[in-house]
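Bumping with the actual sequence this time:
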Amino acid sequence: MTAEYSKVRLEDGVLSITISTADHGASLDSEGVAQGTRALTELGDRIGSILLRGTGPNFCAGGNVRGFAAAPDRGAHVADVAENFHGLVRALDAARVPIVAGVQGWAAGAGMSLVCLADIALGGPATKLRPAYPTIGFTPDGGMSWTLPRIVGSGRAREILLTDSVLGADEAARLGILSRLVGDDLVQDEALRLARAIAVGPTSAYEGIKTLLAESRTNSLDRQLDAEAASIARAANSPAGREGVDAFVEKRRADFAPLHSH
């Protein structure tokens, strides 16, 4: 990776995006966001999984509120921040590979929005989530008003957003915002381990699963069944599908690694 990707790393098929650092109180890193968006576009086929990470004690504490306060035109400034952030959100939503988030400490505001975008989000007992927007008189960005109701249901999402609820790790896991909990000191390592395992897995199957899930947002069950039938037929003839079925019949573990270009 070149210097222009200082906040992004591609290794063993895992695209790691640093979305916050300990600087500025773990607020959303605009450079990490922009680099992540660019990398997702430019590195496409080389990516086997995506890892969202913060490098400090917290995953991401949200937008840089001090920066909002200092802006001559706060509306214009926040619009620019949201546009930059939403470029990453759109690129993540369009990504054909699984997204893993290692959520240590706080995930607030934009940080919580990113957790809601992840396919698999690992936290620890000390992880806490909060929308954080109403506290400063703001409304959500990063897709939270769209993703959160789909994870927890519309009634619970209304309560969480309108009361600016602080969600502890256990509740966030019970609601499905966090996938599972590991030790606080293991969150980053376990998230990376999982991202690496996914990156050498059956990528074409993951692609198909993510496509089906995206289509299910608007499909009837009837149309979704047609899509599933077509998808599983393609999978059966794919290199990954052939290897998986052959391995099952031969009572060995499937080896998908040779199918990857990275």
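The tokens above came from a reply further down the thread. The radius of gyration is 19 Å.
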